[in-house]
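Give me structure tokens for this 295-residue protein.
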Amino acid sequence: MGNIFFFGWEIALMETLQRVMPAWLMTAVSQLSVFGEEVALILILGLFYWGLDKKAGKYIGEIAIIGVLWNPMIKNVFCRRRPFMDNENIDLYRLIAPGADKYDVAAQGFSFPSGHSTNAASVYGGLARLKDSTAARVAAALIMLAVGFSRVAVGAHFPTDVICGWALGLFVVFFLPWFKKKLQNENLFYGILIATALPGLLYCRSEDYFAALGLLVGFVLAVKFEERFVNFENTRKPLEITLRLLGGGVIYVLCNTVLKRVFPAAEVMRTVRYAVVVFLLLGVYPMAFKALKRR
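Here you go.
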């Protein structure tokens, strides 16, 4: 299942990296992928939305979720197989879906463009644009490069997957705020974002698309619910931020554990599960902040 296409230099580069890098270095490099994965993104979103600046948190959530959503919509058009699947000299050192057969395309997903690279470019690039300083831009660029290099070195992506992942993430960073400002209507803005996602229902079959669709729906509902019924205040007190992050982490783990049992692994049910988790975390959970503040 899937398509095979690549440039010769990509295979040569990946084979060379895996041949010359010792095991300890490959292990260290593989950990750099964490910066483009779910846990890191949730921590960043929670730090801003629950703690430092709710408006900045919404901005980060918007660009992160749209990057996460548009990425699999593109992947399911090109259906590019991962490099280790058809090149015997390339191995996979960091499983995309732990526990599944690494040659199972349905479980490990398609390759083009790189989701980790899209996430890194959208979130850290978005933070750099928010901060608007040379130091922030340099830090964002270094993290993007580290994540991209990690994905190539571990055999999960071709270099062109990474380059196009960066391009998609940066496009979202610059396009989305401009588009939102142009519309000057948040409800219409969110409606259009959801409309751009719906065509994927016709052709996407990968789990990441249905999860991302749920993230978007849950995010929009949570933001509107919070504005109407909660309207919590941010804090810059380290202890309060830490407690809010810890509480959010516990709720995230519990919700995922419980809802995985409630909702089967079917495509639409996956969307519902992610929508419920995000709505509870960003819409309902902040009610606890106001209750604790009154006490």
